[in-house]
Amino acid sequence: MNIYQDKINDIVQGVYLVRSCNNQYVRISKLTDDYLNTTGIISQINETREGHAIFYRNNRYYMMTSHLTGWSSNPAELFITNQNNLKNAKWYSLVNPTNSSITFNSQSTFVLSFP
């Protein structure tokens, strides 16, 4: 489970809960303004993933994930959506960014912006 603050040009567009549901698929829900509830599911990936880290770059959203194998090491996978917002986003697998089958015994938590 993770939280993503969608901030474009220093303006917060929304705050989202990103989670694995029953280890069957990834769902994204927008949080209410008081952060106590969600407004419902706005997007999902129908694959087993964990370690979700969304980031926005060059007018596109990306999601770094890890495969789901319990405590065993596994590869990372990067997803992309061609939409300019997260609502009803359709995610496509892009690549294993590490080219490693074990992702160095770790998984993503967040993506740090580096100018």
Describe the structure concisely for a colleague.
This protein is mainly beta and 115 residues long.
Uncertain runs are none
Q: Tell me, briefly, the overall form.
A: globular
Counting helices, strands and paired strands, the structural category is: mainly beta
Number of strands: 8
The number of helical elements comes to 0
* Gyration radius, in Å: 14 Å
How many distinct folded domains? 1
Order of helices and strands: EEEEEEEE
* Largest beta sheet: strand ordering: 1-2-3-4
The portion of residues forming beta strands comes to: over 45%
**Amino-to-carboxy terminus distance:** 27 Å
The major β-sheet equals:
4 strands, antiparallel
Mean pLDDT: 89
InterPro entries: Glyco_hydro_beta-prop_sf
Could you please describe the fold and organization of this structure?
The chain is an all-beta fold and 115 residues long. The protein has one domain (2-105). The chain contains no helices and eight strands. Strands 1-2-3-4 form a four-stranded antiparallel sheet, with no helix packed on it. Strands 5-6-7-8 form a four-stranded antiparallel sheet, with no helix packed on it. It is globular and about 40 Å long. The mean pLDDT is 89.
Summary keywords:
single chain, 115 residues, mainly beta, four-stranded antiparallel β-sheet, 8 strands
